[in-house]
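Give me structure tokens for this 387-residue protein.
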Amino acid sequence: MSLIGLLCLSVGINIYLLLPVLKSWSIPSLSSEESFDRAEPVNNRRAFSALAQTQGDALNAENLQLLFEAEDFRTALLGYQLLQRQNPRQSQLLKQSWLKIVRGWLAQEGASYRVVDFTEAGLDTQPNDFDFRLLHAERYIASDNPEHVLRAIDIYYALHNESTQPLRGALISEIQKIVKKQVDVLSEQQAWQPLLRLAERLLWHEPMHPPYIFVYARTLIKLERYSLAKNSLLSIVYDEYYGGKAKQMLDEIALLDLSDQAVALQVDGAHYRVAGSINGRYPVSLMIDTGASLSVVSPRVLTQLNINPAPVFVRNATINTAGGKVNAPVFTVENFSIGDYSVPNMEFVLLDIDDAAAGAGLLGMNFLRNFVFKIDQKNNLLLLSAN
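Here you go.
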């Protein structure tokens, strides 16, 4: 008989000797809902004891690899555990080889039956093993199920909390990639409830992480739960880096949370004037002009009001008037409001209007286009509502 024939015969005899011992012990399956923090299964301990009494030459990496290739993962992993005690370096190389192969299956097939079988066998035999738990999380991610993604995130955070500093950074980076992808997918699908559950789970792990607070607040806004969104943003409104963005979102919430409003108009011939307020304290009466792109206020009125903070010069603009084109300065005020509806950094052209009906100036589209508006001519009302 040739040398190759003898080697094949030897491997076959070894597997024949090993299989009955390994397979004589049933391994309870680990459901996906169970905790990883549990004692090593009793049946596994009995199997180890029995294996330790067998011939050691049958237990080697080559034989275990054959079991793996036959997809008898539980038997292979039980043998791996014993080999781990006899030859740690060889067992570690074997394990990393298997993990690489299974991750290849995961990339090509998704969470296929053999990926699931290997992962569950690994967790059954070694429920606290870092690599098997990480593979379990990767398998959840591959399923594209929002609830499975939440479980994967829980696993990543658990591994993060148990790891040393260098590894923690890599795990957080992976969590951030998973979160970004999931937020993008759920936002595109307008799946606001699953996105809310994701944000709540993230904040459970990192309660004061501003990016997660923004995801949470944005989702609440989509669900029209403005009060909760506002309260969450107030927790970071004074943050040096994120405070500005939080204030912008709070302004957005204030606008969306407005109730429809009817503002009384003063009729002057064919024109309507409406009462407004500069910076919340300085009242002005402006004529509505939907043909004007910019609002206009008389320089004389601004001087009389002595507005604080003072209007800020922005630029000069060419304005079309009844008498032709004129150049006039444009200023911004801190805000301009009609009722509860306000526009920040509102621009006004400083220009005298030769029309008594205009009052202090004109209300143009740079205010009105921010809202849904309608003039109720029958009841002399300006109807405003959020876009």
